[in-house]
Amino acid sequence: PFSFELAEPIGGEVALRLVGEAYADRLYYLPLALHQELTRPSWTWRNRTLLSGEEEAVREVSASVANVASAGVTLLRAPGGWRVGGAEGDLAEPAKVTELVETLRALGAASIEADAPDAAALERFGLASPQVVLRLRTEQGEDSLELGDWIEGRVKERYGRLASRPSVVYGVPAASLDALVKIPARDYLDPVLFPVLAKVEGVSALGAEVGETRWKVEDDKDAGWRFVEEGDPACDKTAVESLISALLELKIRERLDAPAAELGLAEPGVKLELWERDYRHVITIGDQLETGVFAVERLLPNPAGPDAPPVAHRYAVEIGALVADLAAGPLDLLSKRIFQASSWDARQIVVKDREGEVLLTAKWLPKDPANPQGQMEWRVTGQPDADPEAFKAYMKNFDDLNAQRYVARSAGAELADYGLERPERFEIEVETFEGSERKRVARTLLLGDRVGTSVYAMAEGGRSIGLIDASFRDRIAKGFGKQHVLLRLDVWGVREVSVERDGVMAWSAVKPSANWRWDAPWKFACEEGLMPQAAYGALEDLLEGQFETLRISRTEPATRTRLAETGLDAPALRITIRSRGETEAEPSEHVLLIGATRGERERWAMLEGGEVLGVLFDKPVVDLERLIRAQPGPPPFPPAEPATPREE
Known about the structure:
Layout (H helix, E strand, L loop, with lengths): L3 E3 L6 E6 L9 E4 H7 L19 E8 L7 E6 L2 E4 L5 E2 L2 H13 L4 E5 L3 H7 L6 E7 L3 E10 L2 E9 L2 E9 L1 H7 L21 E8 L2 E8 L3 E4 L9 H12 L3 E5 L13 E7 L2 E12 L2 E8 L10 E8 L3 H6 L1 H4 L4 E3 L6 E7 L5 E9 L9 E5 L7 H8 L5 E2 L2 E5 L14 E11 L2 E15 L2 E6 L4 E6 L1 H5 L8 E5 L5 E8 L2 E7 L6 E2 L14 H15 L1 E9 L2 H6 L7 E7 L8 E12 L2 E6 L4 E6 L1 H11 L19
Antiparallel strand pairs: 1-2, 2-3, 4-5, 4-9, 5-6, 6-7, 8-12, 9-10, 10-11, 11-12, 13-14, 13-17, 14-15, 16-20, 17-18, 18-19, 19-20, 21-25, 22-23, 22-27, 23-24, 26-30, 27-28, 28-29, 29-30, 31-35, 32-33, 32-36, 33-34, 35-39, 36-37, 37-38, 38-39
């Protein structure tokens, strides 16, 4: 060891001399910063950290305030989240716990007021009977901080002492802490029924038991949401996430002390499970206490272990129609796609009626029989004048055949209720690959009873029975003879669609940039008019599937007399479609005029200013009206038809 002497600083330097004869004639000049470090108060070299520990390692935190019965809290980290009051307590609001823990971890001594204080000194500092006691338990150990009186002349500091260092009295900056520790324990309780921090994205599974109905859906990151049952049927992602979002928004209205039996919770009618990663939230739903408000019990894991009974807390929660939504889960959460047979891969279709008689047969064959490797086209048996392009467009109906709504999950016995015990059959052969080998597989759609313009349907081998639009079935009777192309669109270039009914603007949508926007004579209940993704996605699907190539049959010259006779001189509908042109300043415009009804599912149609008129199969018009009717705002069109008793 050696020692040295420092002179008073001069300018920005300080002189240093080592003690000893060997160094008597040597001086060293060092930066002023060294002098400042070596001459600061000795207590500042001591450990000023008080309650320490990594946030994830904190297991328990508590605060008690003398003479304030309502203040103070104990918070315990347990499965499912922090609990207020210990292992039997209810869940705490994470943000408030984090604020308290972070404040304690950030505490540091501002000064050291005394070493080895005696009893009289402790009394003088207010530490003989501390006013506030803070305790922090981590995986590494436990420590507590006692706070006494405010330090005179320093209103933001209290005397403090650590249990692990009882011989030192600190000056502790405690002004911000003082307000936190006086928060009543009840104010730490989380008002949310399902405290999932990552919201919808944090939920990995959802299941319910409602009476005899049981179901569970899981988020397969590769395949999306699917039911956990035989066949793993796909879910409607939007419907599942909408239900989860509604559950995560549920708030606790009141905490109940009544026994479970008095609230209908001893044998509850509904059990709901929601998985967040590896943790399972469990609630049961009992009696309805008032309109839309139900008794709910939340079951928390017991920290004593998996064999210990769960910790139960009961509440009044405004659930509204969610009980009905949970009961309808097996139907409402199903993917709306009831059948799929890609038109790109289809090679044959055979349609049979209920008696097994063939209504339609078509095959994908070489255009030139002498060149089997050449261009392919559809040929319809018994219709030598059939238009291959028209039939190719018809097969797109099976690319994604969606249910308007599901009515049952059948185990077989219910088929007769929907006319599916002896159905019409749409048998489609598609070409696919098994490894590197080509093979053909059959996919069959079954049709049952009609309900207006809809029909009950299911995929052969499936369990889901739904109502679908029957227009593709009705189209068969019209034949597939040569048709006139009335309209051909670049659907991705469309920028505006508007509909006038009897000369009055009923609805319009514009696409100024990436998204469709509504523009109508009434105010829509959506922020800034931006269409939800499902709505503008449906509109773009409709344009691509129905309006990309629009054909009419039985064409004739558009004379003044025929315009009057077909209702096209004063059309019932004007559908205007504007697309981008060669430049944004020169958009193109197509105005489709829809006149009188000619026959079942047929309307007279023409382009405004065109020279021919003809008969349009009305599916594009019906689908457009259905889409518009589903949007917010006053319904622009009357219902397509009255509901039948079965629909109700």
